[in-house]
Design a protein that fits this description.
With 257 residues, this protein is α+β, with helices and mostly antiparallel strands. It is 35% helix and 25% strand. The protein has helices at residues 3-17, 22-29, 33-45, 75-90, 97-109, 113-123, 147-157, 237-240; strands spanning 19-20, 50-53, 59-62, 126-128, 159-166, 172-185, 188-195, 200-205, 209-219, 232-233, 255-256. The longest helix has 16 residues, at 75-90.
Length: 257
């Protein structure tokens, strides 16, 4: 188990058992007594009230009214929530948008400063528009769940991204590109990247990407992506919701693949 999974398992065990011992918890989660003690201290820091009694018949007990008071969401989890709301808003299908925004704002405020900084940098790469009605969606597939964590590493550390790609004809190739932006055109999602082999920007449909892998040591510089005026940055979305953008287009020779 990783740290987060182990601590979640400890909380579940305490809620179920009512009272238990460090030894029993260590056996249940497959960790040492010292590791479980560190986990208990960390859970208390997060807001859980865990009582302990020493001696024979003693042990640990979780206050039934206890709950976590600090956010443990990863940057990618918050990002996924935000872009889900952004996609629905761009598609004009977001009832109760005020409540959704208020809830997301509370989540963001609970993030530690370093995670909030990463989230803002990640969101700065996000753009939103409206898909052309002529777009063929017949071959649309689910997006690989491994893509967003790989994006987080590649975008925040400015590393090249290597992946397998299936183009519109079904031909499969291996690509290594410099990720510059993400583009939501509901229901399609695109990676916008600089392709060194072609010396140009390219759209890569995310549902056609598989086996994404950041390339360690292969950094790159951030480039200005020439989006059309009617493709709006994520940060501009609330004040642009009344507009109906056309299909996105790059000035210059960038193409979709």
């Amino acid at each position: 188990m990783n740290i987060r999974s182990r601590q979640d398992a400890i909380v579940r065990s305490l809620r179920r058992a009512g009272a238990t011992t460090i030894r029993e918890l260590a056996a249940e989660v497959g960790a040492s007594r010292r590791t479980v003690l560190r986990d208990i201290a960390a859970l208390r820091d997060q807001g859980f009230v865990i009582h302990s009694e020493a001696g024979r018949g003693g042990g640990l007990q979780l206050d039934p009214q206890s709950m976590q008071t600090t956010a443990r969401l990863a940057v990618t989890e918050v990002f996924a929530l935000l872009i889900g709301v952004a996609a629905m808003r761009a598609a004009g299908n977001l009832p109760f948008s005020g409540l959704a925004d208020a809830g997301l704002a509370k989540i963001e405020r609970a993030l530690p400063p370093d995670k909030l900084c990463d989230l803002r940098r990640f969101l700065a790469c996000l753009h939103v528009g409206t898909l052309s009605p002529q777009q063929d969606l017949s071959d649309m597939r689910p997006i690989d769940p491994a893509l967003l964590p790989a994006f987080e590493t590649a975008f925040l550390r400015r590393l090249r991204l290597r992946f397998r790609y299936r183009d519109a004809t079904g031909r499969k190739t291996k690509r290594e590109v410099e990720p510059q932006a993400m583009l939501i055109l509901p229901p399609l999602w695109y990676l916008v990247a600089w392709d060194p082999a072609r010396e140009d920007f390219r759209h890569f449909r995310m549902d056609r990407i598989s086996a994404p892998e950041p390339v360690e040591g292969a950094g790159f510089r951030q480039r200005h992506v020439p989006f059309a005026d009617d493709v709006c940055p994520y940060g501009d979305l609330p004040r642009r919701t009344g507009s109906r953008p056309r299909a996105p287009a790059y000035s210059g020779s960038a193409t979709s693949t």
